[in-house]
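Predict the 3D structure for this chain.
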Amino acid sequence: MMRWSLLLITVLFTTLLVPEKKFTFQEKPVLTWEDFMGTPPIDAHHAASVNSGIAYGYSAKIIRDQVSIEFDVRSEFYPQLSWKKDLLENDAQLLRHEQLHWNISELHARILKKAFKNYQPTQNYKVEILDIFKRIEANRQSMQGRYDKDTNHGLLLSKQREWETYISQEFFKTS
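Done. Predicted structure below.
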């Protein structure tokens, strides 16, 4: 009975934490306002918010003490956790700002792919893979924060254009 209760709690917890819908950058690289399906927090200070991130999975084989790993890396967008305050809002400049948040997540997915490609696995691969992910995810979050700060959430148009150019150049380097 205890095992079933624990299983039920785990399933419910997982179901509540994992957004129902998501898509990858490869499936939908360009956002529209229709992608922002979430409800803004009551205390939201901004007009809109993208909720995206990077995710990975892997399969490992160990043959004669040699570790071989195949990775799956992607950026994910969560429509139900992304929102805009004014449902009638159709501000193209604001959408461009939010789009770049999505692009920053994709950039870091590409950086993670490259890091995994260059990774030479050891017997301690589980810890090492997680460390690589944590480092790149911390960099992604830091860049997202710098982007908002530098552009004042997209209000400083010259800084917004600088960031758009920078991310475009980084995309080119990682393609």
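The radius of gyration is 19 Å.
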